[in-house]
Structure formats: C-alpha cells, structure tokens
Amino acid sequence: MLLQTSAHHLNASLSSSLSYSRPLPSKIPSLSLPRSINYQRLTISSSISQVHNYGTVDYERRPIVKWNAIYRKISLLADDPELNASSVLNQWEKEGKKLSKWELCRVVKELRKFKRYGRALEVYDWMINRAERFRFSSSDAAIQLDLVGKVRGVSSAENYFLSLPDNLKDKRIYGALLNAYVRAKMQEKAESLLDKMRSKGHALHPLPFNVMMTLYMNLKEYEKVESIISEMMEKNIQVDIYSYNIWLSSRGSQGSAERMEQVFEQMKLDRTINPNWTTFSTMATMYIKMGLFEKAEACLKKVESRITGRDRIPYHYLLSLYGGVGNKDEIYRVWNVYKSSFPSIPNLGYHAIIAALIRVGDVEGAEKIFEEWLTVKPSYDPRIVNLFIVSYIEEGDFDKAQSFFDNMVEAGGKPNSSTWEALAEGHIEEKRISEAISCWKEAFMAEGSKSWRPKPVNVTTFYEFCEQEGDLRSKEIFLGLLRQSGQLKNKSYALLVGLSDEDSSDNDISLEKDSINDNQDGDEKSDDGSDMLLNQLHSTL
Fold it and tell me: What is the C-alpha separation between 311 and 492, in angstroms, rounded?
C-alpha cells in the first residue's frame, strides 16, 4: 500500500543494552573546565528508573506543566549570542512554575532534533548550575559531550571527556567522543579511540562500528567498511539494520548493483532484520547513480509502503529521488499525498519539491510552488530562493537571478553564504570581477559562514580569472578571505590556489563534490546516502 496517511509512529531508539546502572556524580563538570575537580564531595546516584529513548533518566513523575511551552519560548529566541535559554528558564521559575528534569530533558531532545545544539547545551548548563536539584546519568554526560563537540568543537569535547574520572567513562561516553571525531573526519583519532573501546569491552554492540563505517563511507575507504562487517560477524556482534544499510550504501557506491543486491539477499535471510524505508531509499539512490531507473522506481514504491506515523522525512527523499529518476508525474503525486497527510509542510518539504521540479526541467511548476510557499512560509528560508538563483544563473539569465535576490531582501529574507556565492558565480560568468569580489566578501561574512565552504570549482575559476585579468588586488583579497576563514588550512583548498603543502595544515578534506557547502543549502540526501545514515544513527543516541 502506498503512502498511508495515518499509522503508528515508530521511534528509533537505542537497545536497552545501552542503559547503565553505574553511578554518576550528581554534578557534571561545567564547560568552563577547572584544572581539577573534587568528585569526593559530590552526591552519587546509583539507581536508574525508567529510561527514555532520548537517553535521559526520569527521576521524577511526569510533570503537569507541558514541556512544549518551554520549548516554544526557547526556540523563538533569535540566533543572538547575547540571548540565552537560561533567561527563559529563570523567568519561568520566577513565575512560580518549578521545572522538572523530565521537562528539561524533553526540551533538550526537541532542540537536538531540530539541530538547535547551542540552545540545548544552554539548557544543560542551567541544570548543571543547579546540581542540588538535578541528578545526572551517564547518558546525560554523553549527550552533553556530544553537544559540546557540536557547539564548541572537538577540542572542547576532548577536554570535557578528560575531566571525567576514568571509572565513569562507560561506553556511552566513549561513543559520544567517537561521534565527535567521526563528524570532524578525524580518522586517526577515531580509529585509536575505537581500539581503546575494544580493549575496555565497550565495543560489543553495533553502534560504534556503524559510526566508523559512516566515516569510511565519507572517506571512500570502502574496503574498511567490509573489514568492519567481517569483524562484527567474527565476534558475533549483531549486524543491525543500520549496519546493513551502510553496507548496502558502500557496495552501491562502488558501482556494483550485483554486490549491493548480494547484501540485500543476505539481509532478507536475517530473521532479526526488517528492511525499512531507509534500506530502499539507499538502494534507489545507488540505482539512480548507476542509471538503473526501473530498479530505482521499484525501490521507491517500497519506500512508500514503509512510511509510518507522522514521519515527514521519507517524503522529502521520495521527492528528491523521483527528481533523480526524472519522473515528473510521480513528483507531483507524492507531493499531493504529502500535503494531504499533514496540516502544514515545513520549509524542507518545499525545498525538496522545488529542487526536484527544477531538476526535471519544470521551472514553471517550481515557480508556482514557490508562490504557494510565500503564502504559508513559517520563515523566509534563503535555501529555497537559492535554488532559483542557481538555476537562472546556469541558464544564463543573471537578471532574473538578481531579481529573485532583490525580492527576497525586500521581503525580509536574509541571504546566506551560498546565496552570495551563487551571485559571485554569475558575475564571474559575466566577467564582472569587482562585483564578484564584493559577493565573495559578503559570503565569508554572512551568518552561518563557519559551516560553509565555497565550491572548489568556483574557487579555481575565480582565482584563474583574476590571474587572466591581471587583477592582483582582487586575487590577494580573495586569498585573504580564504586564509582568514581557515579554508587554506585544508591542503586541498591550498592546492586550488597554487599554495604548497607547507602553507596548510594536515586537515585534508576531500573536495571531489562541488556540493561541499551542503551544510548550508543541501537537502537531506547526500550523493551516497552516508550523511542520512549518520544522521539516523545520531537519532538513536
């Protein structure tokens, strides 16, 4: 049955084997880490009651006050560093509404779900400063370590890890640090930590191996994925649904439909495994890359039959993948069912349908959807406008791209780095070097630019254009922007502009894909599906 409009929601959660009864101090060390911590004075809690799927322990009865009221207040805070979740929490308690740990952990779960990691960390900070009221589990420490890594970087996550006593570093804590290394593509540190986890008996379940396989997928070291699978089988470590999906993706990424299908046949023989929608969306992605569109569409029908509950994400993948197949009719069919299944569609949903229609050449249809989005948008998302700007520039219609940009700014939209880069690309095509450098400056200064990296092809094209025109001043300004933003610490970027290895650090991130700025503008589907798989792994933590 295709695209059911109502079904029970199935939440992905960690195995109960990941819960712990080991005691943890009631006060987790603060993020401004002291040189030494006296744990002897801390109260120890050794009992664990009900463990929720977001990894925190419920020590209190479910509160009467609704958690989502607190969440809404925090989520409405602008991304202003001077605003803090603590102000919301303090005001709440000033009004005589005492907060429980269950409420706060539920708020943290929701903030993490929508990638508001900084706000989630602020909520934990607030609880830590009230250790006499809130008791913490090892899973709380693991979640906090994960948040520290995302918000303040791997170095801060390492400091947090080191501040914990050795006897409290269980497999959750090690797993959170491993995730931080994998997210940063720190292969040597990740492999060294996994070895330590093996020696301490913390690698007897599939999660750390799955996380490592996503790293090898991103690095295109597919033989190491096979090695991990072999190790799991030899040691009788369960090969779970995530393991199989990553394995499928690895085989497919190597261009072999037959070898990918061998994994799927083995998967069907495993009675502990029930292939999910991710299984078939992964296979569809690989079939599309191989040009096997009939097989891809067969998999997409199976994706539809496995959508459960109120999960919107599968619809986004279906729209994107039908765009990859080139089936416009199916794009509209899925879109209509999606709209009939939910009272509202988020920006990501509109991004998915518009991107798919542009991909199949139906720009007029995409523009109609855009007009609809303007009437219902919860916020002005520049990623949606960027789809049109890039499309018009590729068609050579810079004036229309500029018009879309101007309309966005007039309506209160805020261009992101990818917006400015697209305009720079258009100016480069038109041989307007001064206008291009102005756009590059804006791109490197835009909000969120730290998570953005310019497309390698644009870096090379603009650099060579400056040299051809003999514009040394613009070339030096551009190099300065790359250097100041830290891009030239990457060997691959340094080589793009003719610098030697000595001018860069050891961080060598692959620049094979021109969609390197996916952190800002990408939808949920990466070329090989590894980003999706890693995100789903994180949802289980």
Answer: 38
- Which are the contacts of 344, defined by CB distance < 8 A and separation ≥ 6? 376, 378
Query: pTM surpassing 0.85?
Result: no
Burial of 75 (0-12, 13-18, 19+ CB in 10 A): middle
Read off the pLDDT of each residue in 36-60 and give the average, rounded to a whole number.
36
User: Tokens 């199989």 correspond to what residue?
Assistant: 244
- In the block, which residue shows the tokens 């750390």? 208
Burial bucket for residue 329 (CB in 10 Å: 0-12, 13-18, 19+): exposed
Please check the confidence at residue 188 and state whether its pLDDT lies above 90. Answer: yes
With a CB cutoff of 8 Å and minimum separation 6, the contacts of 182 are 190, 211, 212, 214, 215, 534
> Can you give 267-304 as a three-state secondary structure string?
HHHCCCCCCCHHHHHHHHHHHHHHCCHHHHHHHHHHHH
Asked if 168 and 24 touch (Cβ cutoff 8 Å), the reply is yes
Q: CA-based Rg of the chain, rounded to a whole angstrom?
A: 24
Q: How many alpha carbons fall within 13 Å on the CB side of residue 182? A: 29
Helix (H, G, I), strand (E, B) or coil at 51: strand
CB 324 within 8 A of CB 296: yes
